[in-house]
Amino acid sequence: MITQRLPFIPNEITVHLGPPDSAAPNVTVPFVDYIKNVASSELYPTWPENALRANIIAQVTFALNRIYTGYYRSRGYDFDITNSTGIDQAFVENRDVFENISNLVDQLFNVYIKREGSVEPIFALYCDGIRVQCDGLSQWGTVDLAEQGYTPFEILQYYYGDDINLNFNTPTQDIQETFPGRVLRIGSIGNAVNVAETWLNRISKNYPAIPKITELGGVYTEQTAEAVRTFQRIFSLPQTGEIDEATWYALQRINAAVKRLSDLDSEGVSIEEVTDLFPTQIGLGATGEAVRLIQYYLNFVAYYNNRVPSVNFNGIYDNQTEQAVRAFQAEYGLPVTGVVDIYTLSMLYDMYRTFRDSIPIGYFEEGPAPYPGFPIGLGETGNEVRYLQEYLNFISNTYTQIPKLTVDGIFGPATETAVLAYQNIFGLEPTGIADIVTYTSIVKTFRTLREGQQTSAG
Asked: Cβ neighbours of residue 10 under 8 Å, at least 6 residues apart?
């Protein structure tokens, strides 16, 4: 399960009562009580209310940044933050809190600072401004600004920049491990795969030896495995090409590092980066590419198992699709709900691969090969690419705008150009990637043209 893609307010936070590597104990306290403790330890209750508000929001944001980036958890620690003021915030176990500060925290515990265009809590660096100076907020400086009539938001803008916003009413939930709970390997499918692929592509900007994954399809292909193996080699992990718990947290940690998410001038995380590719559950009334993929897998399984009915390939989760899903679930020992959750989706993909891998080599030399189950783009190699090149070459005899290709099983720039040409001719989105829509269209056109040629010859 992935819970830290969108920021949230934790119900509880675990604090290490000392520097990170010390033998000090941990304490777990409600997050609201933690902020009340920190604010009462670092602020004076006699300060102007606007100064107190600005400081409390900064303290909330600082703590959320530690949790959102997995700063300590991804490094193997069993806590979320320390009370070491050199790196974190002051926290004194069992201390009394000031009443006015307690009341303000009750109002502000779910408000945090973010940059425009980003979703994550910024690294809200601050210092007292007298004994210690820093690039962030000056706690004593907030007093001067408040006395000049600055609002809490204007105070925060003064220190963190005009491009900040405040996120209000942030939802609360328990902190859970971000690791999805299963090893990701070739054939795995779902949002966790998409997250890992996104991290790998961002990390590859700083470590160009890691090959780009050309299409973030949420399906773990050999291309994904190769990127993982290279990542593992660079960061001294066992080179399995699979994402176990250690590799997952290394990916999370290095992604946060290259994006500087624990720095005041971080690159930021856009809403697109935290949008799930696959809905948690897909059922009646759903539409789109995830539904198309489900229908494609159902039809492929139905070809080999007549107890699973085929469906219309229309991208609409209609009654026919629901009945086919129910039949599939009953056939393969899943709860019969008619709704596709991640377990049904994974089983669909597993059975698709099982049937597909059982097809003899050379079976598709005469007839068109089915969609391989993942988008084919730059860098992909293998028979899937070779078949695609052969179909495009055949189609190019009629549609001469499509350039002829060398059939070498390597999806290079020339193949991308040919796919783009096909997409432009047939009114498809010009991505240069043979996703399920483009691939299916190419196969349909190939079959139509070949049958027409055979009829003419006959």
From this structure: 31, 67, 80, 172, 173, 174, 175
Strands 26-30 and 12-16: antiparallel
- Please state, in angstroms and rounded to a whole number, the distance separating the CA atoms of residues 350 and 356: 10
Residues 6+ apart with CB under 8 A from 372: 356, 384, 439
C-alpha to C-alpha distance for 394 and 408, rounded to whole angstroms: 15
Predicted TM-score (pTM) of this structure:
0.67
DSSP state of 97: -
10 phi and psi angles, rounded to 5 deg: -70, 145
Distance of alpha carbon 282 from alpha carbon 286, whole angstroms? 6
Contact 253, 235 (CB under 8 A): no
- State the DSSP H helix or E strand holding residue 228, giving kind and residue range, or none if neither: helix 222-234
In whole angstroms, what is the distance from residue 220 CA to residue 353 CA?
Answer: 12
Q: Residue 457 carries which side chain, given as an amino acid letter?
A: A
Using only C-alpha atoms, the chain has a radius of gyration, in whole angstroms, of 27
Cβ–Cβ < 8 Å for 30, 42? no
Alpha helices, DSSP H only, in 73-221? 99-108, 139-147, 152-160, 191-206
Please write the tens of the pLDDT for every residue from 128-150.
Answer: 999 889 999 999 999 999 999 99
For residue 175, pLDDT over 70 is answered with yes
Tens digits of residue pLDDT in 68-91: 999 999 999 999 999 999 999 999
The tokens for 352 are 């698709």
Token pair for 132: 């210690």
Asked if residues 260 and 266 have their Cβ atoms less than 8 Å apart, the reply is: yes
Query: Tokens 């600055």 sit at which residue?
Result: 150
Residue 224 CB-half CA count within 13 A? 26
Q: Give the CA distances from residue 120 to residues 14, 87, 243, 261, in Å, rounded to whole numbers and listed in that order.
A: 20, 20, 25, 8
Tokens of 312: 């219309």
Rounded-to-integer distance, Cα 209 and Cα 342, Å:
32
CA distances (Å), origin 259, targets 106, 135, 356, 386, 391 = 32, 19, 39, 37, 41
* Pairing of the two strands 137-138 and 126-127: parallel
